[in-house]
Design a protein that fits this description.
Layout lengths: L5 E5 L21 H17 L4 E8 L5 E18 L4 E15 L8 H19 L5 E7 L3 H6 L3 E2 L11 E7 L2
Parallel strand pairs: 4-5
Antiparallel strand pairs: 1-2, 2-3, 3-4, 5-7, 6-7
């Protein structure tokens, strides 16, 4: 677990200079360069266009100034179509985890867990106070399936493995 002074905040242009130092371990992720480039080049554009919001975990130095991005999670609105072999039960509102990445120097220190906790908190706050949210959905990297499973995410029954061998669709039903 991490014991440093950290906080969660919304990614903004104020943090853009810190993205050059954000490195994802290529041994932990099938597409580390993509996650690094997304934060540096695309996250603010997507956010400004209303497509998603990127939440960053940042480290604060002794002067209480942000000096490092240690992880991020990008969330968007989505829906989940639920059906079985005979019936279509309809579309249900969801939050989608678009991207999640941890800096190489902060792996295995509980940051992924904190990012998922934050996502569940956001979903529950929206659900209780603003809009209907029934699920959290993610197209999980195969290396991350264990983490999502610990949180109660399940593989989609209709998983067609269209993204194989890199990802698997998973869902978490909110109580």
């Amino acid at each position: 677990m991490i014991a440093e002074n950290i906080k969660m905040t919304i990614f903004s242009k104020d943090y853009l200079g810190l993205t050059e130092d954000f490195k994802v371990n290529p041994n932990s992720c099938g597409n580390a360069d993509y996650y690094e480039r997304y934060l540096k080049e695309q996250a603010l554009i997507d956010q400004d266009n209303g497509l998603c919001v990127t939440h960053v975990f940042v480290r604060l130095n002794p002067s209480n100034q942000v000096d490092k991005i240690i992880g991020y999670i990008t969330l968007s609105a989505s829906s989940l179509n639920i059906r079985d072999n005979k019936d279509d039960f309809g579309n249900f509102p969801a939050i989608k985890i678009e991207y999640i990445a941890i800096d190489i120097h902060f792996e295995r220190r509980g940051i992924g867990t904190k990012l998922l906790n934050h996502t569940i908190f956001v979903a529950e706050a929206l659900r209780r106070n603003y809009i209907g949210i029934a699920y959290i959905v993610v197209c999980a990297d195969l290396d991350a399936v264990g983490l999502y499973t610990k949180y109660g995410f399940e593989k989609c029954a209709s998983e067609k493995r269209s993204n194989a061998p890199y990802n698997i669709n998973m869902i978490l039903e909110l109580a």
